Amino acid sequence: MTPITAATRAAPAAQGHATIERISRTLELLQDRLSLTRRTVHAGDRVYQAGARLGCLYLVHSGFFKTVNFTSDGREQVVGLHFKGDWLGFDGIDEGRHGCDAIAMDVGQVWCIDYAALLEACSAEPSLQAAVHAAMSREIRRDRDSMLSLCTLTADARVADFLRYWADSLAERGLRTDQITLRMTRAEIGNYLGMKLETVSRALSRLARDKVIGFAEKGRRDVSIPDVGALSAFVQRSLGAGSPAAMLQ
User: What is the pTM of this model?
Assistant: First the structure.
């Protein structure tokens, strides 16, 4: 997630077709060059656990996933969100073991790709190697943008930016954004954004009061977004008027 400029506000619409083509091209390359194992998962299922040996990388074919770390006292810290076309497991390449848990947030499917076979295929097919490197670059950029959001945005703007990021990710994959179902509780959103549950709830209420978002039913996760651009504009206004005190809530 990142503060939005005039140029990046138009990006999801402009990039949507390209993103769909990119995902389709990557899936075709993998199918042509490798033997894949398709795994169906349900909400709460773990794709892999921290500390497990890295044998495979995973490509999200459908569904929504989160990557999490656990503190020494057992608390969960959400460190990443993943949509169709995203890869899971890059963090385990360096040491040969996964550094976090990857958990499904609803019914979905991942493609399991043997890492050794992938390396061999990449050496023989430059376009596949380029696709993997591009995916790594996108993950690095997302991590950087997420940190920038935490450091520069007010509490309300962080929630607005989170909703914008979720909607943009859906739009880039050809899915509707006027009505989205969040696969995370308010506590999980707060965990991901570095905020208390109460702060997330207040931010959502203020966004609804200002007609930036709406709720299909009180207390549910279905959020209506009449105009994703209004979320972007809210974030932009926050950048000009935010205070350090608000960001620390």
Answer: 0.85
